[in-house]
Specification:
The structure is a homodimer.
Chain A: E1 4-5, E2 9-11, E3 17-25, H1 27-31, E4 40-41, H2 52-70, E5 80-85, H3 91-97, E6 104-106, H4 113-126, E7 132-139, H5 141-148, E8 164-165, E9 168-175, E10 183-188, H6 203-222, E11 231-234, H7 238-251, E12 260-262, H8 263-266, H9 270-273, E13 279-280, H10 282-298, E14 304-308, E15 310-312, H11 316-320, E16 327-329, E17 331-335
Parallel strand pairs in A: 3-4, 5-6, 5-7, 8-13, 11-12, 11-14
Antiparallel strand pairs in A: 1-2, 2-10, 3-9, 7-9, 10-17, 14-17, 15-16
C-alpha cells in the first residue's frame, strides 16, 4: 500500500496502537470541569521544586512515568521518548528526560507538540524502527507567563481574547503490538500558516487558519468527509479561535459544528475560573486527550477521532520585533479498527 | 531484516540517499580555513534584514532553497521540511519556513539538531512516508550571544574554553531514489547525558560525554569497530571537548585519534580569528558537512563517515538557576554502498 497520501498525510500500514495515556495537572486544572479525570492532580504548582521551570520538568517526569506504568512497562521498555514544551530551549523536556536514560527525540511545535509527536512516533513504529515510544508534552502557566508576557507579580490585566496556559503534562505510549487498543491510522503534518495576526493575546484567532488548513488537507488527502469522524478535536483554539474555525470551514462548504470540540474550551470554566477564552499550552491538548478522549476511545464511546493539536509559534523576541504569529497544527486520526 | 538494533540504533532497509547538501554562512566563516567551500558566503551578517533573528531566518530560507536547487528540484518537491535552531521557540526555523508551504517537522536538539533531523528524515523515507525530505539547521552568532550570554555591545570578555557560534545554515535533501549518492545506513539517537558541568562557557567539555555515549552505543549496536569508519566527525566539541572525547574513548579502550575530526575545530582559525576553542551552533556541523564532508563522500575520498552532531541543551534561565548542562548527540552513519 501507498503510505504517502496527497500533501503531507501518512497512512500507516499496521496502525500503531496507543496502549496508554496519562495526565498530570496543577490545582487550577483540577478545580476545572475536568477535575477528577486526570491521573494525577498536584496541589502545589511548584511540585516541591525551587523554580517553576524545575516544576515543569517534575510534571514531565511524572507524566512519562505514569504513562509507562499504565502501559505495564518500565520506562526502559521504550525505544524512544519524543517530547517538547514551550520553554526556551525546551528545558521542561530536556531536564525532565535527564536521568531517564532513553534516546530522546526533542521536537518543537509550540502547543501542537503532542500532535507532532504522536505522528512521528507512529512513523517510527510503523516504519519498523521502534516497538514502543513514549510521547509527551508539558507546559506551566507561571513559567510561560513570565517568559512570553510579564512576570505574574506585575499583576498585568489580561484581555478577553487571551488564554490561560495549562500547567501539566500529557503522555501516551505507542506500541507495535496489543489487541483492542485505539490505533493511529493517519497523520497529516502542518504547514506554517500566518494570516498576519500580531496580537499575542489572541492566539486562538491566529491558530484557527492553521487548524482548518490541516483538517481540510487531511480530509482531501484521505477522501473523507467531516462526518466520517465522531469527533474533531482541536488543541487550544479557545472560544474565539473555535468560532473562527467553524466559520473558515463553513466558508469552504464544510460543517464541523456537530463534531468539533476544543480542549482549550473544555479544560476551564471561564466564568468561575477567570480564564477568558480558554486553556492553551502544550499540556492543554495532551492532558485533555489522556483524561477525556483516550478513555472514550477505550470504552468505544468514540471510535473515530481526528485529534488536531494547534500551535502558535511566537517568541517574546518575535513579538517585540512586531512580527506576526506563524501557526501550525497536526492532525492525527485515531480509530478503533 | 530487523530495522531496530540494540539500544536506540535504527538500521535502514533501503538506505536513504543524500542527493544534495548546501551551506550558506556569514563573513567570519568565509574568512576562515573553509572559506571558498561554502555555497553562499554572505558579506552582511544582517543579510539585508532589520534584526539578527530575521537575518537567521533569511539564512534558513536561502539554505533550504540552495539545497533544493542543487538536488534539481523545487522546494514543493519535498514531502516534509525538518528543521530547528537555537533561538527561543525556534523562530529561525519557523519564520524561515513561513511561506515555503511545505509540511514542517520542527525539532530541537540544540547544536545536534542537524544530526537528529538526518535521522528522522531517513526514518520517514525508509518507512515509506516520504520520497524527499529537506533537513536544515541554522544559528547566528549575534542572535545567540544576546540570547544566551550578553548583548555584543557590552564587550564582555570570553574565556579560552568558549566557542564562537557559527552564523549560517546547512541543509541536505534526502531521497528514496537516486544512483551513486551517499546513503544513510544507520542512525543512533542520543540519550541526555549530564556530567554536572555548569560552565556555559565550556560547552565542549559538557558535550564530550554525550558524544562518546552515542558513538560507543552506535559501535556496540552495529558491531563495528572505530576503524570501520574513514572518519568520525563530531559537531562542535571544539579543541577542549575533542581532547576530552579522545580521552573518554581511550578510557574505554577505543582509539579515535586517527579517525576523529570536529567541525568546530575546522571552521575557524583560533589564532587569526580569536575564536578560542572553536565554532559551535547548529550551523557549525550542518554547514561544514555540506561544504567539506558531503563533497568528499561524493568524490569517494571518504566512503564511510560517522557524523555526530553534538548539542548542549542549556537555556539562559537554566544557567541562571544554577543548573548543569544536559547534553545530547546523534550519530548518523553515511556510506557509499
Amino acid at each position: 500500500m501507498n503510505k504517502k497520501l496527497g500533501d503531507g498525510t501518512s497512512r500507516f500500514a499496521d496502525p500503531p496502537r496507543i496502549v496508554s495515556a496519562a495526565s498530570v495537572v496543577g490545582p487550577k486544572e483540577a478545580e476545572g470541569p475536568l477535575g477528577g479525570s486526570f491521573d494525577a492532580e498536584i496541589e502545589d504548582e511548584m511540585f516541591g521544586q525551587e523554580t517553576w521551570e524545575r516544576a515543569e520538568s517534575a510534571f514531565t517526569r511524572r507524566g512519562i512515568k505514569l504513562a509507562a506504568e499504565k502501559a505495564g512497562m518500565e520506562i526502559g521498555g521504550a525505544d524512544f521518548i519524543i517530547g517538547g514544551d514551550l520553554l526556551n530551549q525546551s528545558i521542561g523536556t530536556t531536564f525532565g528526560a535527564r536521568g531517564l536514560t532513553r534516546p530522546l527525540i526533542g521536537i518543537y511545535g509550540a502547543c501542537s507538540t503532542f500532535g507532532e509527536g504522536l505522528g512521528l512516533g507512529a512513523m517510527m513504529i510503523d516504519g519498523g524502527f521502534a516497538g514502543r515510544v513514549i510521547v509527551g508534552a508539558s507546559s506551566h502557566f507561571c513559567a510561560a507567563e513570565r517568559q512570553f508576557r510579564f512576570p505574574l507579580s506585575m499583576g498585568t490585566q489580561r484581555p478577553p481574547t487571551s488564554t490561560w496556559t495549562v500547567t501539566g503534562h500529557g503522555a501516551a505510549v505507542l506500541a507495535s503490538e496489543g489487541d483492542g487498543f485505539p490505533r493511529i491510522t493517519h497523520f497529516t503534518a502542518g504547514v506554517i500558516t500566518d494570516y498576519g495576526v500580531t496580537d499575542a493575546n489572541n492566539m486562538g484567532g491566529a491558530m484557527a487558519p492553521a487548524a482548518w488548513d490541516v483538517i481540510a488537507r487531511h480530509l482531501r488527502d484521505t477522501g473523507r468527509a467531516p462526518d466520517y469522524y465522531d469527533a474533531i478535536v482541536t488543541g487550544d483554539l479557545g472560544s474565539v479561535g473555535s468560532s473562527l474555525l467553524l466559520d473558515l470551514a463553513r466558508g469552504d462548504g464544510a460543517d464541523l459544528t456537530g463534531a468539533h470540540a476544543d480542549c482549550g474550551v473544555m479544560i476551564y470554566d471561564p466564568e468561575k475560573q477567570d480564564t477568558h477564552a480558554g486553556g492553551s499550552g502544550c499540556a492543554c491538548s495532551a492532558a485533555t486527550f489522556a483524561a477525556v478522549f483516550y478513555p472514550k476511545l477505550r470504552t468505544r464511546k468514540l471510535n473515530r477521532l481526528l485529534f488536531v493539536p494547534t500551535g502558535a509559534m511566537l517568541s517574546a523576541t518575535s513579538v517585540q520585533q512586531g512580527e506576526s504569529i506563524p501557526c501550525v497544527a497536526y492532525a492525527v486520526a485515531i480509530e478503533n479498527l
